[in-house]
Amino acid sequence: MALNPHKLGVHKVLQYIPLNAIFDAPSKARLRKAVNIADLRLCAKARAHKMVFDYLDAGADDEISLRRGKDAYSELEMHFHILSGLKPPLDLSTKIFGQDVKLPFFGCPTAGNRMFHWEGESAAAKAAQHHGTLYGLSSLATTGITEIGKLTDGPKVFQLYVWKDRELVKEVLAKAKEGGFHAMALTVDFTWYGNRERDIRNDFSIPPKYSLNQIIEAIRKPAWTYDFLSHEPYTYACINTDVPADSLAAFVNSQLCPEFDWRDAEWLLGEWNMPSAVKGVCRPDDAIKAVETGFTTMWVSNHGARQLETSPATIDVLP
Questions:
Q1: Per-residue pLDDT tens for 135-177?
Q2: Which residues, 6+ apart, have CB-to-CB distance to 132 below 8 Å?
Q3: C-beta neighbour count of 298 within 10 angstroms
């Protein structure tokens, strides 16, 4: 097995050398100047290793669906009422999965948050708690269900992939219930792995391959690199904290189950017996079938345009 800095114990030394503040100073200066989401994206691009940023930012194949989604939102028009007697502060509260939230949106579950920043899912969960909105945890999170349950007592949804091993599914669902998760989202738009060409060009891997190009890029992004080298290697904590992310990649590929069908979904709902969503709907006939099967929420999704190229923009398929 090839050696790398974590196997050599470099993080155990660097954790006692607090240089993070120095390396992060330019990033924090950029953040203070950010005025919108586009600015935040550029801040992330400037801080993160290119391989990591492109993993998060990219779509599948030629990224037609990714551009289509952005264009679809830019084409929306706001036909506003006038003289409505609005008095700030405006009340944006609503219910999601039957839970009261202060904002009508939330951060979508995303795999491997600690790959982007050492605080990972913990930071996102704290932000959701602070703003009074829902938090979504991915099956491939790098922070465990129990840890997230301790961080926030607000509404939470657990995003579940379609695994072949039903005992694994039951074990994960039991943990989610114990962790105070109020809803489950079955992800059905990830029964294959998208052809993400940026990842191929960047030679993306978990952990990095420590090639010359990867090392040069790591030197160019010292804040991200010091975070990575000075903290424990991350695992996919919702499945098995003892298995490192690089070993688990093969497990994930072996466990994804394209054969999963509506009868399997009925079994899953019987195991959960709480509010549930089917995540990945883009056709009305599938939405009808999902309601008939017992799902309480339709989650219109194309997996961030990261899976099936030329899938429709999600906003375009809403009634």
A1: 999 998 999 999 999 999 999 999 998 788 888 889 999 999 9
A2: 93, 101, 102, 103, 154
A3: 18
pLDDT for the residue numbered 236: 82
pTM: 0.90
For the chain, list the strands marked E by DSSP: 94-96, 99-101, 135-138, 156-160, 183-187, 276-281, 297-300
Residue 272 CA: distances (Å) to CA of 25, 52, 100, 152, 207? 45, 34, 21, 21, 34
The rounded distance, in Å, linking the Cα atoms of 90 and 151 is: 28
Neighbours of 58 (CB within 10 A): 21
Q: Is 79 a catalytic residue?
A: no
Q: Are 184 and 265 in contact (CB under 8 A)?
A: no
Q: What is the CA radius of gyration of the chain?
A: 21
Length of the chain: 319
